[in-house]
Every structure is written in structure tokens, then in C-alpha cells.
Amino acid sequence: MTTLGDVADMLVGFSFKSACFLEADSDGIALVRGDNVQQGCIRWGDKTKKWPAADYERLKRYQLAEDDVILAMDRPIVGDGLKMAWMKTEDLPALLVQRVCRLRGKVNFTTTRFLRYVIAAPTFSSHVQRITTGANIPHISGKDIASYEFHLPDIDVQAKIVQCLVAYDDLIATNQRRIRLLEDAARHLYREWFVHLRFPGHESVAIKDGVPEGWVQGAAHDFVSILSGGTPKTGAERYWNGGIPFFTPKDCPTSFYVHTTEKTLTESGVSSCNSRLFPRETIFITARGTVGKIALAQRPMAMNQSCYALVAKQHCNNLFLFLAIREAVDYFKQVASGGVFSAIIIDTFKVIPFVLPIESVTDTFGQTVRPVFDQIETLTLQNLELAKARDLLLPKLMSGQLDVSRVTYKEVPT
After folding, report:
1. In which band, very low, low, confident or very high, does the pLDDT at 161 lie, cut at 50, 70 and 90?
2. What is the pLDDT of residue 3?
């Protein structure tokens, strides 16, 4: 029996001045803040802040390394999930910010990789729930993190446990890389056809007013219906924890598809609020909080009032529309003045430029990218199943309930 403080090298981040943060597109060093720590991964994207690269060597103590275990100390639990992650090669170089804790294994006691699974175990999440304090901003302290008690197997058994569990994480990471490549391919093909205008047969189509003949220019509002959502009464238990996903800005994924949500509704919960049950592959866009994030519903979902659902007003391939809206919103964010995109209202869509090609071109494009989207969905669902299998195995291995010597390679994904 030991404590986390006895076997882990723990470090809380540096108090960087937020006024000096650089934006994501700068050449600085990425900062790992609480907002970047998700359940099992570091999330960059619109949450990325950077620090001048000239300071990197001076801040050697706060430099992060591959496999470092990261734990958010403010709002450490979101829904049922712990905000913990580990650093991967693609996340580096990076620096640790205050109110985030870094853990590394101490030599001869444990490895950093084993600590990853100590932190990921349900018993540690239960410990965090017990030690969390603060009404406005729930938080935990380094002292309380260090006080966590657990059974530490010898170093050889630790290595075997890691070997079993990391097989799942490595396959999940491989699938995530494949998903990113597929999504990049879909976006590049969209730009090739509709930005650079090199769609099939473009050589024989005349350009009129800057677009191919027959294409229509306007604003996004001219071509899509903007549908609102709503939230049932939070105190009515019969409305919540059902089988219907309830999409909010917190659920917006880093990839194309959203498949799980923090909260769920019952059928009576959906019927009691302003949200309809939106069908599979509905396009969601976040309007408040994290603004302008776009996702495809992987299955039927309801939606809260901080989002919109976008539906074509006339026949238009939905995969084309999804990529076109992403491209249009990203472009508008770049050219809009600072305060314009702090929130989205329906009138925002009246100033977002949009071009609608002729029906045959969007249909052909949709048929071309459909296999890519199908692969993305398959890999996404496979990762969900892998994570479930790993999470079932993890507590049994960590508690000794399952003898690691009895876990064969046939039980571990390859």
C-alpha cells in the first residue's frame, strides 16, 4: 500500500501571464492549460494558447515530455469523466500552466506509463470527487492528489499490466491518426472542387461573376434553415438520463462526428422542450460558449439552445453542405472583427458568404466522399468499443482481481 505522492514526481505548472499569451497560429510553444485537458487526450484547436519560443529554455522545469500524465486541478471532473490525459509526440513541445498537475514515475518505484492507469482507474476518480472543494470553481490541491492510496504491484507486474492496456491505447491512437488523415482528405477534396474550382468537367463550364455558370452566390441564410434547440427542466428527473443523446457545446468533438454526449434525455424530456429529435447526420453548430464548432450527429440527437441545427432549404447533398459550412464559417472567423464571433445569432448567417453549386456537382461530390465519411464513422465507433473494453479491463488489472499472467495476447487487440 502506498500513496501517489510517494511514487510520483508531481509538478504544478507555472503562472504564465494570460495577457502575454500568443494565438494558436503563432510560432510559439503550446501551453497545456486546464481547458486543453480532456478525458484521455490533449485537445488543441481553438483552445490553443502559446508562449514566446525565446523563453522555452528558461522554463526548463515546466517543459513536458512524452507520456507525462496530466491532470486538470480546476473542474477536474466533467460529467462522469476525469480530466486527465498523457502527452503524445504530436503534442510537443509544450509547457505546463498553473492549476494543471504533471506526474512522472519515480525510478525504482513505478513508471510514468503505469501512473497513467493509476490515474485512469475508477478508484482515483472517486478519490477526486471526495477531495474536490469550491462552489464556484470546483478544484483539487496537489496535497490531496498526493494523498491517494493504492496497492502498488512490483515493477515486473506493472510492466505486464501496462503491456495489456497500452495495446488498446495504441490502437485507439492509430485510429485517431487515420481519422485525421481521412478528414484532411475530405477537406482537401472540397477545396479542390469548390474553392479552386477544379471539379470534374470544369474545363467546359463558363465562369460568370466569379463562379461557374449555374452556381448561386449569396449568404448561408439563403440556403440553409437554422433550427433552434432547448433544454427540459433540470429538476425534473423523468426528463433526464434516458437513451437520447443531448448535444451541447461541451460535446463538440475534435473530429467530424459526435457520437456520445455528456447528458441524455428521455422521450418525455425531448417532448417537453423546444428541441426536436434531429436525425442522423444533422449538422450542428455551436452558437455560445465554444462558438462556431461544427459536427455531424452520428445518431439521432436532441440539442440545447446554445446550438443550431442546419438543414438545406433545397436539395443539396448533406456531406457537401457540412464541409461547405465548415469552410464558410472558418473563413468568416478569419476576416470578421474581434467581437463579431463571440456568439452566433440567426442574423450571423446573413453575412456568412456561401456559394451553392448546381445539384449534379454536389451529388457527385457527396458520392465521392461518402466512402471517406463511412471509414471515419467506422473508426470512430471502433475506438468507442476499444475504450469500453480497456475501461472494463483496467480496474480488474489494477486491483489484482484479474491475474495479469492469465491475460493472453488473444484478449488484447492487435
Report:
1. very high
2. 96
Give CA–CA dist 39/98, Å, rounded.
19
Residues making up the chain, counted from first to last: 414
**Which amino acid makes up residue 238?**
R
Give the residue with greater pLDDT, 186 vs 402. 186
pLDDT value of residue 410 = 44
DSSP element (H, E) containing 371: helix 359-399
Parallel/antiparallel/unpaired status of strands 240-247 and 302-303: parallel
For residues 1-15, give the mean pLDDT: 96
Q: Is 109 exposed, middle or buried (0-12, 13-18, 19+ CB in 10 A)?
A: middle
d(CA 109, CA 207): 70
Whether the predicted pLDDT of 82 surpasses 70: yes
- The verdict on residue 198 lying in a domain is no
Which helix H or strand E contains 382, and what residues bound it?
helix 359-399
Cell output for 137: 470553481
Whether the Cβ atoms of residue 38 and residue 85 lie closer than 8 Å to each other: yes
Exposed, middle or buried by CB within 10 Å (0-12, 13-18, 19+), for 318?
Answer: middle
Residue 218 half-sphere exposure toward CB, CA atoms < 13 A:
11
Domain CATH number, residue 287: 3.90.220.20
Residues 145 and 13 in one domain: yes
> Letter for the amino acid at 40?
G
Residues 304-325 pLDDT 10s: 999 999 999 988 999 999 999 9
Q: Chain centroid to CA 360: how far?
A: 34
Which element (helix H / strand E) includes 320? Answer: helix 318-335
Query: Which of 356, 388, 404 is where one domain is finished?
Result: 356
DSSP string of 172-186, one letter each residue: HHHHHHHHHHHHHHH
343 confidence band (pLDDT: 50, 70, 90):
confident
Cis peptide before 93 (omega within 30 of 0): yes
Coil vs helix vs strand at 159: helix
Single-letter amino acid code for the residue at 65: A
Whole domain around residue 292: which residue ranges? 216-356
What are the helix (H) ranges across 90-134? 112-120, 122-131
| Cβ pair 60, 269 in contact under 8 A | no
